Amino acid sequence: MEEIPSKPYLLRALYQWCVDNGYTPYLGVRVDSRAQVPTEHVKNGEITLNISPLAVHKLQMGDEQIEFSARFNGLARQIAVPVASVFALYARETGGGMSFDSEPAKPMGQAAGETDSRAPVPSVVPHAAPSNTADESPTKPSPGGKPTLRRVK
Predict the structure, then answer these.
(1) What is the distance between the alpha carbons of residues 92 and 104, in angstroms, rounded to a whole number?
(2) Average pLDDT for residues 107-124, to the nearest whole number?
(3) Per-residue buried b or exposed e for 9-38, using 16+ beta carbons within 10 Å of the residue's own CB
(4) By the 8 A CB rule, do 50 and 22 touch?
(5) Exposed, middle or buried, 59 (CB in 10 Å: 0-12/13-18/19+)?
(6) What's the gap between Cα 24 and its chain centre?
(7) Which of 27, 34, 89, 112 has its CA 20 to 30 A from that of 62?
(8) Among the CATH numbers 2.60.40.1670, 2.60.40.1260, 2.30.30.220, 3.40.190.10, which is that of 7-106+121-149?
(9) pLDDT (tens digit, 9 = 90+) per residue, 132-144?
(10) The predicted structure's pLDDT at residue 69
(11) With a threshold of 0.85, does the pTM exceed it?
(12) Residue 121's pLDDT is what?
């Protein structure tokens, strides 16, 4: 049996944490041909979206895709992004949140199976918490051999 990915669950939990604390959840997305976003707001192949309850309508955070409608420059737009393309969800006010691995973005006009050596290098989310390095692993083996979680601030 194939393991169910944890990323959609973590995204939903982080979103709920932001909302429960009165923070504004921001979603960082690598944009490719699968993403339905306003292309005029895409920079370096990425877009950051405010997904707070006051900014979006009918938010659906599924296992494969995140969908909602939102206004951009006064125009209602339907937004859909694959969960695989999400690279961060964080609180605007504190920067607390999480960054994720995402599939490399394919340029908008690129066909499936083609590669492009000029693909944009992902930029760093300015407010996202730094990811753990090999020296700061959140799990360490306990004396009994079982991993235990370590709180990282």
Answers:
(1) 24
(2) 40
(3) eebeebbeebeeeebbbbbbbbbbeebebe
(4) no
(5) middle
(6) 14
(7) 112
(8) 2.30.30.220
(9) 333 333 334 444 5
(10) 97
(11) no
(12) 33
